[in-house]
Amino acid sequence: MPPQQGLTYVWRPIPAGRHAFAAGALEADPNCPVISYCGVEASATELHGRTEYEWVRRGTCMDCWRELTGSRPARSS
Ligand SMILES: [Zn+2]
Questions:
Q1: 29, 16 contact by CB (below 8 A)
Q2: Residue 76: inside a domain
Q3: Ligand 1 centroid to 18 CA: how many Å?
């Protein structure tokens, strides 16, 4: 996709952790569920109005991280 489209994903702390969502999820209908890169379902409203405290408190989801970086474990046995 063209780089001028800017960010294609966003990180948001939700009760289940800090997950990455497609950027379009921010414009999703508030009543619609949105799915993180790792498959966690959240309410679209949960992506908004997050506080600094929540950002610090929630751990980064490593499954989302791997999805975005494409860094799958090199070792496969
Ligand atoms: Zn995740």
A1: no
A2: no
A3: 7
